[in-house]
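Fold this sequence, please.
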Amino acid sequence: MVNGVPEIVLLPGLDGTGDLFDRLAERLAPELAVKVVRYPQDPSLGYAGYAEIVRKEIGSRNVYLLGESFSGPVAIRVATQLRRQVKGIVLAATFVKNPWPSWFIRHAARVDPQSTPANIRDAILMGPFGDPELAGKVDQIVRSLSRPVRAARLRAIAGVDVRDDFARLSCPILVLHGRGDWLVRKSAMQRAVSERGRARMIIIPGAHMLLQTRPAEAAAEIIHFTRSTAEAHYEA
C-alpha cells in the first residue's frame, strides 16, 4: 500500500527500460500506485540477477506484480520467493518456457536488431494497433539498447523454464495475451494455465506489445483483478 492505495510493480520487456509503460501507468492511476522497475544494462545478469534486483526493489512491501514478455519468468520467480508479499501476479504477453527453439533464439542473439526493417519490426510487435509516436519510441530504444545486453537477455530466454515455479504460485494470477501475438504465441500460456488451474487468462485483440497498443483494455482488466482479489482477501 502507498497512501492507502494498492501498489503494482511493473517489470519491463526485453528493452529493460520501463519507458514503454507510460500509457499503461497513466490508466492504472489513481486506482493503483505504480512502480516501474528499470534494469541496468549489464550483460552479466541472467534471470536470477533480475529477480534479485526486483526483490530488493520491493523490500518488505506488499505488492501486486506485473511481468511483461521477457520479465514474465522474473515475476514468477519473485512471487514464489516472496510468497505472501505478492498479493497477485499479472503476466502479460509472456511465457513460462522459452517460446521458440533454443537454437533459433541463440541465433537471434547474434543478429543486429537494426538490420530488421522498421516496418517489419513494428508489424511484428504492434500489428495494426501501432502509431507513429509509439513506433518512434521503439526505434529510439532499439538504437540505445546495448547489443551485448540484448544478446545476454535472449540467451537467458533460450534456457528459461519456470513451469514448476508457475505451478507452485499461491497468489491470484491474471494472464493477458494478444490474440494476434505470434512473437510469443498464446497457445503455450493457455496450456500452462489449463494444466495449473486457478488462474484467469484474458485474450485481447492485439499483437505482442499489448500493454502499449491496448493500454485501456489491459488497465481495465488489471484494475478489476486487483479489486476482486482485494475484496476476496477482505471477505476471507
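Strands lie at 7-11, 33-36, 63-68, 86-92, 173-178, 200-204. The longest helix spans residues 215-235.
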